[in-house]
Amino acid sequence: MYLIKSCPRCDKGDLFEDRDEYGSYAQCFQCGYVEYPEAVLPLEQAKAEQLNRRGRR
User: Fold this and answer.
1) pTM value?
2) For the chain, how long is the longest CA-to-CA vector?
3) Which domain holds residue 29?
4) Tens-place pLDDT, residues 11-51
5) How many domains are contained in the chain?
């Protein structure tokens, strides 16, 4: 999803929402600002989940 002219840092930038192995985030095309709308996982929990996914393959 694209959020037009909604960057809190540069006020003119367009945010795009994406997701990776650590969770959802929104990033500005123009200035690179990154926003994490959901709670960020602690490093230990993220590593444990990654190892858990690798074991399922």
Assistant:
1) 0.60
2) 43
3) 2-56
4) 999 999 998 887 889 999 999 999 987 666 778 887 888 88
5) 1
Contact at 8 Å (CB) between 24 and 36?
Answer: yes
As a whole number of angstroms, the distance between CA 53 and CA 57 comes to 7
Q: Which residue has the tokens 């989940």?
A: 49
CA atoms within 13 A on the CB side of 23: 14
**What CATH number is given to the structural domain containing 48?**
2.20.25
Nearest to 19 by CA among 34, 4, 31: 34
- Helices assigned H by DSSP within the chain: 43-56
